[in-house]
Fold this protein.
Amino acid sequence: MVGEPGGGDGAGPNIGSAWGAISILLAGLLAWGGIGFLLDRLFGFRALLLPIGLLVGAVGGTWLVIIRYARNER
Protein backbone atom coordinates (compact mmCIF):
# COMPACT_ATOMS: atom_id res chain seq x y z
CA MET A 1 0.00 0.00 0.00
CA VAL A 2 1.17 3.52 -0.70
CA GLY A 3 2.95 5.23 2.15
CA GLU A 4 3.61 2.10 4.18
CA PRO A 5 6.92 1.80 5.97
CA GLY A 6 9.28 -0.50 4.18
CA GLY A 7 8.72 0.84 0.68
CA GLY A 8 5.32 -0.64 -0.08
CA ASP A 9 4.73 2.00 -2.76
CA GLY A 10 7.16 0.39 -5.20
CA ALA A 11 9.54 3.36 -5.27
CA GLY A 12 13.08 2.33 -5.97
CA PRO A 13 16.16 3.49 -4.11
CA ASN A 14 16.87 6.18 -6.72
CA ILE A 15 13.71 8.21 -6.10
CA GLY A 16 15.75 10.77 -4.14
CA SER A 17 18.12 11.17 -7.08
CA ALA A 18 15.18 11.76 -9.41
CA TRP A 19 13.74 14.49 -7.18
CA GLY A 20 17.22 15.99 -6.85
CA ALA A 21 17.62 16.17 -10.63
CA ILE A 22 14.17 17.73 -11.07
CA SER A 23 14.87 20.32 -8.39
CA ILE A 24 18.20 21.28 -9.97
CA LEU A 25 16.52 21.77 -13.36
CA LEU A 26 13.69 23.84 -11.88
CA ALA A 27 16.07 25.90 -9.77
CA GLY A 28 18.15 26.73 -12.84
CA LEU A 29 15.07 27.81 -14.77
CA LEU A 30 13.72 29.90 -11.91
CA ALA A 31 17.02 31.54 -11.00
CA TRP A 32 18.21 32.45 -14.49
CA GLY A 33 14.71 33.17 -15.75
CA GLY A 34 14.26 35.51 -12.80
CA ILE A 35 17.55 37.23 -13.54
CA GLY A 36 16.51 37.65 -17.17
CA PHE A 37 13.13 39.04 -16.11
CA LEU A 38 14.72 41.55 -13.74
CA LEU A 39 17.25 42.65 -16.36
CA ASP A 40 14.42 43.08 -18.88
CA ARG A 41 12.66 45.42 -16.47
CA LEU A 42 15.88 47.23 -15.57
CA PHE A 43 16.89 47.93 -19.16
CA GLY A 44 13.35 48.51 -20.46
CA PHE A 45 13.08 45.53 -22.79
CA ARG A 46 9.77 43.80 -23.15
CA ALA A 47 10.84 40.17 -23.50
CA LEU A 48 14.42 39.93 -24.67
CA LEU A 49 16.46 38.71 -21.73
CA LEU A 50 13.82 36.48 -20.10
CA PRO A 51 13.98 33.80 -22.84
CA ILE A 52 17.76 34.05 -22.86
CA GLY A 53 17.79 33.56 -19.08
CA LEU A 54 15.45 30.59 -19.35
CA LEU A 55 17.68 29.03 -21.99
CA VAL A 56 20.80 29.59 -19.89
CA GLY A 57 19.02 28.11 -16.87
CA ALA A 58 17.87 25.04 -18.78
CA VAL A 59 21.32 24.38 -20.24
CA GLY A 60 23.06 25.07 -16.93
CA GLY A 61 20.66 22.89 -14.97
CA THR A 62 21.04 20.05 -17.45
CA TRP A 63 24.82 20.37 -17.25
CA LEU A 64 24.74 20.24 -13.45
CA VAL A 65 22.51 17.16 -13.48
CA ILE A 66 24.90 15.43 -15.88
CA ILE A 67 27.91 16.34 -13.74
CA ARG A 68 26.26 15.25 -10.49
CA TYR A 69 24.41 12.07 -11.48
CA ALA A 70 25.79 10.68 -14.74
CA ARG A 71 29.43 10.83 -13.72
CA ASN A 72 28.66 9.02 -10.46
CA GLU A 73 27.57 6.01 -12.50
CA ARG A 74 31.09 5.36 -13.81
About this structure: The helical segments are 15-43, 49-70. The chain is about 70% helix and 0% strand. The chain has a mean pLDDT of 86.
